[in-house]
């Protein structure tokens, strides 16, 4: 397909940005690594593309007075892999950023765009009028579904494409969302929408709203985190399976835990049953095996993706085992 015609503007303030967005069929342009592909492939249309690349206030990464970290939505993915504040206090985020796509795309793509990107399902991206496009059928259910979800699917079986989002959920991070009328702050965990909540939406962002920043809570002593991703090829692929861990240890026991999966569900998928099993415990082989199994207890695979269950169990077990001596 060819790129459709659209007008292109570069506002110099958020106020001007909201004015352009209110005009009708307009789309935000940040890094453009997903937007331009969606326009070319006909995933959606736009009469106007509103570039926010000149809004320097959205590019800063800074420590706030309370010790938290504020990352502007236009900070590039590559910047997250190398920034000292991220590498020192939030290693899972740096690791997740390094797993995103190719070096060229990491240099161009932004953290805001990574969180708000569209699904990579080949039916959604192809010439199929599927449920996510307002149709009546999810073609993955009886089609090629080896990369689709095993958790949280109902009527649509995409997997959430972001590596960064699971790490942010594991940290309990929040996002700032600005609109013409107000600015609100919500947990990253509540940013995303399951198909049963809104089958044509990926996030709770309303028309005219802009994700402006990510807020990370202060790093704590005794807090350990990591992100690991398994993919079909050694580079540039989206996750077949991934896990972000954020564990707080006290006297050799897990005092608090967050386990969040990528490649498993239409949203970054937390595993509360697994978290409960390891909290208050020393990590031994039995506890780890129980936690890994619990993460997959509600899995509902389709014809071609049952392999993901054992893949996730093994991945979670291996990553937890790395903390046995913490």
Gist of the model:
The protein has 12 helices and 12 strands. It is α+β, with helices and mostly antiparallel strands.
State the helicity in percent bands.
25-40%
Largest sheet: 5 strands, antiparallel
Strand-pairing-aware structural class? alpha+beta
Low-confidence regions? none
- CATH architecture term of the domain at 223-321: 2-Layer Sandwich
User: CATH first level of the domain at 223-321: which class?
Assistant: Alpha Beta
| Gyration radius over CA | 20 Å
Query: What is the number of helices?
Result: 12
Order of helices and strands: EHEHEEEHHHHHHHEEEEEEEHHH
Strand order in space, largest sheet: 4-5-8-6-7
Q: Oligomeric state of the chains?
A: single chain
CATH topology of the domain at 223-321: Enolase-like, domain 1
Q: What percent strand?
A: 15-25%
């Amino acid at each position: 397909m060819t790129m459709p015609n659209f007008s292109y503007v570069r506002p110099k303030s958020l106020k001007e940005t909201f004015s352009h967005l209110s005009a009708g069929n307009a789309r935000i342009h940040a890094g453009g690594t997903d937007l331009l592909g969606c326009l070319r492939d006909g995933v959606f249309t736009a009469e106007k593309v509103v570039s926010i690349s000149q809004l320097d206030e959205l590019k800063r990464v800074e420590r706030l007075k309370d010790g938290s970290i504020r990352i502007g939505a236009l900070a590039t993915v590559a910047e997250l892999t190398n920034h000292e504040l991220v590498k020192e206090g939030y290693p899972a985020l740096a690791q997740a950023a390094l797993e995103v796509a190719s070096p060229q795309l990491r240099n161009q793509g932004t953290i805001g765009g990574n969180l708000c990107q569209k699904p990579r399902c080949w039916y959604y991206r192809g010439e199929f009028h599927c449920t996510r496009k307002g149709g009546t059928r999810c073609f993955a259910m009886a089609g090629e579904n080896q990369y689709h979800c095993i958790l949280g699917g109902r009527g649509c079986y995409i997997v959430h494409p972001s590596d960064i989002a699971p790490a942010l959920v594991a940290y309990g991070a929040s996002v700032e969302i600005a609109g013409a009328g107000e600015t609100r702050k919500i947990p990253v965990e509540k940013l995303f929408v399951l198909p049963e909540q809104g089958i044509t939406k990926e996030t709770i962002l309303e028309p005219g709203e802009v994700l402006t920043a990510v807020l990370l809570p202060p790093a704590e002593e005794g807090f350990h985190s990591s992100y690991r991703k398994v993919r079909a090829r050694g580079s540039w692929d989206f996750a077949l399976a991934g896990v972000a861990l954020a564990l707080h240890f006290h006297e050799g026991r897990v005092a608090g835990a967050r386990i969040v999966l990528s490649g498993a569900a239409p949203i970054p998928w937390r595993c509360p049953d697994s978290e409960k099993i390891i909290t208050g415990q020393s990590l031994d082989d039995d506890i780890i095996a129980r936690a890994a199994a619990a993460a997959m207890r509600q899995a509902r695979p389709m014809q071609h993706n049952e392999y993901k269950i054992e893949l996730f169990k093994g991945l979670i077990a291996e990553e937890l085992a790395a903390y046995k001596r913490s």
